[in-house]
Every structure is written in C-alpha cells, then in structure tokens.
Design brief:
two-stranded parallel ribbon, about 200 residues, 8 helices, four-stranded parallel β-sheet, alpha/beta, single chain
Length: about 200
C-alpha cells in the first residue's frame, strides 16, 4: 500500500472501496453526477484542493469524462492533478452486464494499474521522489505530427490513444495533458517516431 499526500476524487463507493485497498490517502466520492447538485461537496473539494491538493480519478467512459470536465472547471487548476485509467473492455465482478460502453471502471482496474495512473499524474507518494518534468509537449508538437489541424487529425489521435492505452474520449487538449503526465517531450517524440516507423 502506498501513502499519498493528496486526496483522491472518485465517482462512487465501489471505486472508493477499491482504491482504499491500494492507497493510504483520503478518498472522496462524488456520488456520480450528484456532485453537479451538491454545492457543499463542491465547496469541500475546493477547500481540500487548497489545503492538500486533489487527484481526480474517474472512469474512462463518457460519464467519467463529464464529471472530470465539470470538476476541472470548478476547482483551482493549480491544485488539481488528473489521473487516467486505460480503456479496458470488460465488466466488474459485482455486475451482471458490462456498463453502457463495455469498459472497466476504476473499481475493475488491477491495483498496479491504479498505482501507475496515480504515479503518472504526479501524486506525492511517500518515500518516492517526485517525477521531474522535462521539456513539455506542446500544441505545436501535436500540429507538427499531424495530430491537430488536419482533416484526419481526429483519426490519428484516436490511433495514437489506442497504441498508448489512453482513454479514447480525450479531446486534443486532453490528449496533450495526458501525454505531458506520462512523457517528457523527448520520450514522446521517440515513442511516436518508433510507432510510425513500423
């Protein structure tokens, strides 16, 4: 079990139960879309963000991205980190059928995947040195690689996201954010070059 300084925001109680078996950190649930109507919860999240920082860890489906987007606009950007789980087809054990999009959520992810997602987001993990940021990947890099500004950019981004096991619902800006969480500019350009040389 790893100890994290920041509090972690998840969608529901099953996500919270799963995460509490992996990390020693405060875990706050949004009750799914309930956060949209709960002003007290939002005020609480703002206070926690200011005091110790927050990591948003939602499912990679459409509902997860709606919640993440809402929180992104409602919370102080400099106090919030974003952790992303990969798109993995399947269903959680407790469910009879897969979710609407057929993807595993936070509760269905193996512990190591959750730890790596938190680590990649920049979580302050006790006993580990923080990941040193290198030169960032920019919008100009995405444009130069044809991942934005072209008629086929969306398809190219989708292919890259699949290759890198990133959620498929990322916008161009979301992809840029995720790439900067996972790679330095040099690492990404090397990986991208290797993927396109095949």
């Amino acid at each position: 079990m790893i100890r994290i300084r920041q509090a972690i925001v998840v969608e529901g109680r099953y996500d919270k139960n799963t995460l509490r078996q992996v990390v020693d950190a405060p875990v706050i649930e949004t009750s799914g879309f309930g956060v949209f109507r709960d002003r007290e919860l939002l005020a609480f999240l703002r206070r926690v963000a200011e005091k110790r920082g927050l990591i948003i860890l939602t499912d990679s489906d459409g509902a997860g991205f709606v919640i993440r987007s809402y929180l992104k606009g409602a919370l102080p950007r400099d106090k919030v980190l974003h952790a992303y789980i990969p798109d993995v087809a399947g269903k959680e054990r407790r469910k009879r059928r897969p979710g609407k999009e057929g993807k595993l959520g936070v509760e269905g992810m193996p512990p190591q995947v959750l730890v790596e997602a938190l680590r990649a987001a920049g979580a302050d993990i006790e006993g580990e040195e923080a990941r040193r940021p290198g030169e960032p990947i920019t919008k100009a890099d995405l444009f130069e690689l044809g991942l934005s500004g072209r008629p086929d950019s969306a398809a190219r981004r989708k292919a890259l996201q699949a290759r890198l096991s990133l959620p498929e619902r990322l916008s161009a800006n979301g992809l840029l954010e995720a790439l900067n969480l996972l790679f330095t500019r040099a690492e990404f350009l090397e990986q991208y070059k290797g993927a396109t040389d095949d």
